[in-house]
Design goal:
382 residues, globular, 6-stranded parallel β-sheet, 7-stranded parallel β-sheet, alpha/beta, UDP-N-acetylglucosamine 2-epimerase (non-hydrolyzing), UDP-N-acetylglucosamine 2-epimerase activity
Length: 382
């Protein structure tokens, strides 16, 4: 039996976390020749995930540059993948979500008439500038994809409204839930020693990430102003801010929050540290997309520091609340969770709508069906 060659392409830490269990599932299948190409759109944070999941890469484009631009990233991805595709000639590539690597990978494959599978397809805010550039990266990738792996029924419905053929869409759940089956441990000791000295039992620890491009400038300033007041007004609160390495974010955060009592400013942590920090924390505040899926899986309320989200299922389920970057709104909603037990219980006990840990199996089953390697019936995630 001739194997089909499937190349997984990703370039950032969040993509790597979500693609790792899929790579592992591809490697198990006898009819698939699995190849991995990383663009290294993010370098250090990507390498942490590759090491943890023991993923060997076949190609590393290493495109990251200081003060890189969207145009530069896109052009380097296109040029790098053109050479890789010429050498490997994959039958299908898999890209994930909404990064510039994702769109560049799909476009490069289209130019070579290579099939494209889009993992985490169909998320939409319906505003092309929020999140920027992710909304259009995801939508344009959807226009180029041959198979669409939607995490939820809502995502599938978005794709159907855009004219995608239903037979090309599979509702799989989100692969990040698959990844968390491997990373979250009951008795976990942090490698970052500062985290081991936090009293997670007696303190209400708030885990924070905020780095989205649309929040640069006034948004990050407002978030930091709000965080400073939250920790001052709540003596049992303790903040752990995982600060993005980009100076546009880092400089603002350290200006406002460095040396404040009960505030820990740490660099981005590797996957297992982040997931286990989330598990031990009281709540999460973030502008990240992925954390909106991960935290509810662990029963942690999430305040989203954005005005819109492409993940409305969690908002509808009650696990996530949009608070934007208005100082007073952030403080009000955080204080509710910190001081109102009923409000906290309502959010922390809502059902996570994002997966059951079997998304990767469904995706690879669908790929095998597409290429005629199997006729196995796929039970979609509901």
């Amino acid at each position: 039996m001739k194997k089909i060659k499937v190349m997984t392409i990703f370039g950032t830490r969040p993509e790597a976390i979500k693609m790792a269990p899929l790579v592992k599932e591809l490697e198990k299948r006898e009819g698939i020749d699995s190849k991995v190409c990383v663009t290294a759109q993010h370098r250090e944070m990507l390498d942490q995930v590759l090491d943890y999941f023991e993923i060997d890469t076949d190609y590393d484009l290493n495109i990251m540059k200081n003060k890189q631009t969207l145009t530069g990233i896109t052009s380097r991805v296109l040029e790098g993948l053109d050479a890789v595709f010429e050498e490997e000639k994959p039958d299908m590539i898999l890209v994930h979500g909404d990064t510039t690597t994702t769109f560049g990978g799909a476009l490069a494959a289209f130019y070579k008439q290579i099939k494209v599978g889009h993992v985490e397809a169909g998320l939409r805010t319906f505003d092309k500038y929020f999140p920027f550039p992710e909304e259009m990266n995801r939508k344009l990738t959807g226009s180029l994809a041959d198979l669409h792996f939607a995490p939820t029924i809502g995502s599938k419905e978005n794709l159907l409204r855009e004219g995608i053929n239903e037979k090309d869409i599979y509702v799989t759940g989100n692969t990040v839930i698959d990844a968390m089956e491997h990373t979250v441990k009951e008795e976990y000791k942090f490698e970052t020693e500062e985290l081991n000295h936090i009293d997670f039992e007696k303190k209400k620890v708030i885990m924070i990430t905020a780095h989205r491009r649309e929040n640069w400038g006034e948004g990050i300033e407002n978030i930091c102003t709000a965080l400073k007041r939250i920790v001052e007004e709540n003596k049992d609160a303790e903040l752990v801010y995982l600060v993005h390495l980009n100076p546009v974010v880092k400089d603002v955060v350290f200006k406002h929050l460095n040396d404040k009592e009960r505030v820990h400013l740490l660099p981005p942590q590797d996957t297992k540290e982040t997931h286990n920090l989330m598990k031990k924390s009281f709540m999460v505040m973030t502008d990240s997309g992925g954390l909106q899926e991960e935290a509810p899986h662990l029963g942690k309320p999430v305040l989203v520091l954005r005005d819109v989200t492409e993940r409305p299922e969690a908002v509808a389920a009650g696990t996530v609340k949009l608070v934007g970057t208005d100082v007073e709104k952030i403080i009000t909603e955080a204080n509710k969770l910190l001081n109102d037990k009923v409000e906290y219980e309502k959010m922390s006990k809502a059902v996570n709508p994002y997966g059951d840990g079997k998304a990767s199996i469904r995706i690879v089953d669908a790929i095998e069906n597409y290429f005629g390697l199997s006729d196995k019936k796929i039970e979609e995630f509901k």
